[in-house]
Amino acid sequence: MLEDSSPYKRQLRRDLGAVRNTDLIDDDRAWLRFERFVFWSAFVIRKLAEAKKLSDEFEGERFKITRHPATDPDRLQDHMNAHRVERHYDFAKSEPRTVDPLWIASQLVHSFSFLPEIDDAGHPAGLYFNSDRSRRTSLFHLPWGEFERLILLMCDDDIAAMRFNRITGELRKWRDPPQEIMEEGLDLSQEEPPLPS
Fold this sequence. Notes:
- The protein is an alpha+beta fold.
- 38% of the residues lie in helices and 21% in strands.
- The protein has helices at 6-20, 28-50, 56-59, 85-88, 101-109, 144-156, 179-184, and strands at 63-69, 95-99, 111-118, 124-131, 138-143, 161-164, 171-174.
- Strands 2-1-5-4-3 form a five-stranded antiparallel sheet.
- The model has no long low-confidence stretch (mean pLDDT 88).
């Protein structure tokens, strides 16, 4: 379990600055740095979520993507033709959607198709992806601006208050806690008694 999220967040913020202005045209090392940054970012988001280091507000954020449906779900995209997305997905029937950050991270960690979109200057413009499970039905597009927003929101996310109910198992994590939570303060009478020695 990750004890401190700040080193990961600082590093991702630095890496984002470097990747944002990278020229991806005909530069294998730049492609490697770019792909490593995207996948590492997704992995860090998942690990911080599992360690309860991300606020409910962050986990509830919504990000705009576009879904491109499969042209024929029975014609399976495989490892030999994964890069030929135009054969497998209908870009004329795209539909906008909004998704949460953990969904994006899971799709990227388990990605089957992963194709960066670049602009005329060679800079990142978006990400096309799907997972080993979603490839039968969909290819998704995340604009680069939305991916940057995801990373920056995660880097700025700090939990100011938490509440755990041991009976129900419900855990609440606030970046901006309600006033009544802040006024309650720490009630030590609800702490577990020490174990006998």
